[in-house]
Design a protein that fits this description.
Blueprint (H helix, E strand, L loop, with lengths): L8 H10 L4 H8 L3 H8 L6 H10 L26 E2 L12 H11 L8 E6 L6 H10 L1 H6 L4 E7 L4 H12 L10 H12 L5 E7 L2 H5 L9 E6 L2 H7 L6 E3 L5 H11 L1 H6 L1 H10 L4 H18 L6 H18 L4
Parallel strand pairs: 1-3, 2-5, 2-6, 3-4, 4-5
Helix pairs in contact: 2-3, 2-4, 8-9, 12-14, 12-15, 14-16, 15-16
């Protein structure tokens, strides 16, 4: 591919805004100039390589085709993406989960002969299950694969099951007052709507298998993605061993990269201490993100001071993580 190509301006802008990014943030993630992003969103021709970089930053793979205007030969650009219901904001750049995304994407599109397919992701609290599920829900290849829509719900320890089912039902028909319908009527309606559809049903943060079962209403062409922190729940919901996926913690390098992406100045000045901290946090992404934000705030407050308050905070966080681990219940 040479010369220049016409971007799908509306699509570039929509995907950027869905992620909550400014044009400058997209430019930085794509390693292109701000002017290039502005041109792309104005529909002005840009180099194919630059459009491919933008596509890669948006999670579409490093090729220009997904963002090319239909008149420029982009595949299927006239097709609207399916609706996504109540989806959390796109988490943006995620460190160390490329292989997990690839494997789960593959598992989700596997065909099951006449049997509704499901994948259960389990792992420690804070390991990134919800983040990973959100990335998959935003994945344009999966959205196109499941052309009848992506439905999302997050349950937690004390969910209002009926309310969440009514939200799903309203996605199909908002003209009905679902508050006046019984649980059985709502469930029957959803089962009928999903019977012949190719939809992805995402049920996040399941604490009890019975809660999730209520939402597994799809027909044989539907696939369910379930996340849970409890191995026993994962075992109860999985049909076979191939349906389960254990999401592990980040490796040392990825853990350090994550905290560096949040607090780069701190890691540059205290790399050894930062490595000790992420080791003490055992590679848990949520804990690393929280620690990174604390360090970044402390750095901005104290980086002009002679005293190293940042290093003291690093030590305190590391010691605190070790104490929590040593005193954790068996």
């Amino acid at each position: 591919m040479s010369g220049s190509v016409e971007p799908d301006a509306q699509k570039v802008r929509r995907l950027r805004q869905e992620r909550g990014w400014s044009q400058l943030m997209l430019a930085e993630r794509a390693d292109v100039s701000l002017k290039t992003v502005e041109n792309a969103e104005a529909g002005r021709n840009i180099r194919p390589h630059s459009l491919a970089q933008i596509a890669g930053a948006l999670g579409l793979g490093y090729t220009a085709e997904p963002l090319m205007a239909a008149s420029a030969g982009g595949p299927g650009q006239s097709r609207e993406l399916p609706a996504i219901l109540s989806l959390p904001r796109h988490p943006g750049r995620v460190v160390g989960r490329g292989s997990d995304l690839t494997e789960l994407r593959h598992r989700l599109v596997q065909d099951a002969e006449g049997i509704p397919h499901r994948v259960v992701v389990s792992g420690w609290p804070g390991v990134g299950k919800t983040t990973l599920a959100s990335l998959l829900a935003h994945d344009e290849k999966l959205q196109l694969e499941f052309g009848d829509g992506v439905l999302w719900t997050s349950l937690g320890n004390d969910p209002d099951i009926d309310e969440k089912l009514r939200i799903w039902a309203a996605a199909f028909d908002s003209s009905i007052d679902w508050n006046k319908q019984s649980s059985e009527q709502v469930t029957s309606f959803l089962a009928t709507q999903l019977q012949n559809k190719r939809s992805l049903l995402i049920v996040d943060d399941v604490w009890r298998a019975a809660d999730a079962q209520v939402f597994l209403l799809g027909g044989p062409r539907c696939t369910a993605l379930i996340t849970t922190r409890l191995p026993s729940v994962g075992e109860e919901l999985s049909v076979g061993q191939e349906d389960t996926y254990e999401l592990g913690v980040l490796g040392q390098d990825d853990a350090l990269t994550l905290i560096e992406s949040i607090a780069p100045d701190v890691v540059a000045a205290h790399r050894g201490d930062a490595q000790n901290l992420v080791d003490a946090l055992e590679g848990l992404p949520l804990a690393i993100v929280v620690a990174g934000r604390l360090l970044r705030a402390e750095w901005r407050r104290w980086h002009t001071e002679k005293v190293s308050a940042v290093r003291k905070l690093l030590t305190d966080l590391t010691d605190g993580a070790r104490l929590l681990r040593e005193n954790a219940p068996a």
